[in-house]
Amino acid sequence: MEARDAIAGALVGSDGEEQAAQEAPKAEKTPTKSKMEQLFGFKREDLSSWQSLVALLNRPTDPACLGIFRCLFGMLMAIDITQERGLSHLDYKYLDGAPVCRFPLFNFLQPLPMDWMYLVYMVMFLGALGIMLGCFYRLSCLMFISTYWYIFFLDKTAWNNHSYLYGLIGFQLTLMDGNRYWSIDGLRRPSIRNAHVPLWNYTLLRTQIFLVYFIAGIKKLDADWVEGYSMSYLAHHWLFDPFKVILPVEVVSLLVVHGGGLVLDLTAGYLLFFDATRPYAFFFVSYFHCMNSQLFSIGMFSYTMLATSPLFCYPDWPRRFFGHFPTFLKPVLPFTSPDSQTSTSCAYPESQSTSREQQETPAVPKAPKLRFKHKLRAVFAIVYIIEQLFLPYSHFITQGYNNWTNGLYGYSWDMMVHSRSHQHVKITYKDGKTGEIGYLNPGVFTQSKRWKDHGDMLKQYATCLHQFLPRYNISDPEIYFDIWVSINERFQQRIFDPRVDIVRAEWSPFKPNPWLMPLLVDLSPWRNKFQEIEGSLDNQTEIVFIADFPGLHLENFVSEDLGNTSIHVLQGQVSVEVVEEKKNHTLQPGEQMQVPAGAYHKVYTVSEGPSCYMYIYVNTTEAALQENFTKLFELQERVRNGTETEPLPPELQPLIAAADGDDAEVNATDPIVRLFLKRQRRMKEVKKRREAGVLERLERFAVKKYYTIRRGFLMSAIAMRNLAVGLPPLEQLTREVAFANMKEPQAEANQDERLKDEVGHGEL
């Protein structure tokens, strides 16, 4: 039997027997395979001993599927570098000489000077390009993963599961024979062209993707996900409109978003594994990832996961697929010949001489001769899989990272299981010498927002502020944080103790965080009551649910925009102090009181247990603005229909021009009319974009990506020139950067300010 036929049915991942049977020589009988071999692609005997397992993992396998995946992964990473990795905005991310607080995984890691960071990114890009082309493959993989992990460790604020997955796959490909099929290396070195790869190459990748799905499903067995609180807002997205035709939005959230996501993650790996269920898995997995690409800003993750699905197919599927293409395209397409070369990376069964009588019966090949490298690679594959099974549940080791999430959140595959909202963030500093107390704008000296949710980043941020504030005559400052967070639609509550100076607070990755306030899970049943309360309010009334710990208090300022603001106690006992009036009011459950607008008040929790209360308020400024908008719209409709008989005053004359389709915003003198016309123009633009055809959307997407990628490479070229010959005159550098910053004319014309900033929404 030919080598390829001998291995076709022995691939971990049910590589199938029909294909091998069809391609076997007709004169040779295909041996009957056991049920286990038909389902899993290997026999029970292959697991009976260490020698058999090593032989199985090093069994020669078709390199075609691995080669296509290598090409797709390299291409997607090359695109990802310009986007999510940040090449297009690198100069904004790494500001040379600016006082910026950073959040590396290890504190000793620091970014290089700007031009050198561009060089790091170019090395990473060239590595990804080399992986895609299979050119100097090992070197390209090393170039990619060394720079990738450096950038990944350099910024924890960008740390997430899918970025971690890219690094893992890059590491795996470095040790695999991914350049044996459709690669430039194969053209340079005919000895490796179309050569077998060992089975563990596929086993590792398949297991990795299986774990991504399955463990993500295990993590979704959390009560918050099962009960529909983790991602309830997704049901309002237009992608779920077809489901909302027959189901209420609440049912869509519970059954489709949460139930569907849970079932898919738990079953996707199994469905992809088996031949009978793989077509259905392809459909649902592809639909799932296409939806995710529209729901979330997750870069190339959806497309990378789509690229991993064919790994579960027969390894020779590219040969059969490209075999259907016209003959004149064959020179530029991958090999379609079923014959592969032998490879020293694989373990082949030893041939044995047989007599003429023995040749009439099927020959039983001898066990392959295993070398030390085969055993070493088998050990690596097994250890790697065990490590990937262990890491998502290793949070008992990294206890210092547990901040209402599971440890080092970026390697747990607990994707999208937590949604957060922040109501109140206050940073207080105290001068260590004078005792002077002041407040800092949240986010000062940093571009990130994730420090608000993670104690390790909060510690780094406080240490950084401690270093920068002395420049502003604040000596030896103490830093206190008062941060209120709601996780999965619970009460807004403190996540860190506001009485602790974080600069001097202890933190260790291996010990529990002592100044982390516990999540009030006992109050989770209140979420059902929240929906009832919110449903009883009108559209103009807003509500915020608060929970606080005994002995602490909330200091709050009610904006003048917020009228009729009241506090309603739900549980526990609170004392409300109106600062200007110097009066305290004690409230029991079921009681309420008005708090004045434009003034500070403090809410003390005086009960033995946590207190729960809610703010109910109306944004009177916005309500009045909406009322004016309604009147102006009705007036404009009457002008358009010719039913308005009264002449319009001068300040309303622009409405006539707008009704005729002219852009009269420039002529509007009344601020309300100007804002009304601007909002109308914006709504018209949004409607036009939503109703655009497929070709127009594709063109808009392509143009946007072009200018993004264009900026990244032009800025990289400037940096390479600076490293090579030095900085040019400032005027020349300014012109070059301005040219790189050029945007498409349509985008420049649509740079409207956000309406929210103009309206001046008040926040509680």
Automatic annotation (TrEMBL):
Main location: endoplasmic reticulum
Disordered: annotated span: 1-33, 343-365, 744-764
Sequence intervals crossing the membrane: 118-151, 199-218
Keywords from the named record: Acetylation, Disulfide bond, Endoplasmic reticulum, Lyase, Membrane, Transmembrane, Transmembrane helix
Pfam families named among the record's database cross-references: HTTM, VKGC_lumenal_dom
Membrane topology, as annotated: Multi-pass membrane protein
Reactions that this protein is recorded to catalyse: 4-carboxy-L-glutamyl-[protein] + 2,3-epoxyphylloquinone + H2O + H(+) = phylloquinol + L-glutamyl-[protein] + CO2 + O2
Cellular component per GO, a single term: endoplasmic reticulum membrane
Domain HTTM-like: 58-317
Bias (Basic and acidic residues): 751-764
A molecular-function term among this protein's GO annotations: gamma-glutamyl carboxylase activity
Compartments in which it is found: Endoplasmic reticulum membrane
Protein name per the record: Vitamin K-dependent gamma-carboxylase
Provenance organism: Stegastes partitus
Chain's gene name: GGCX
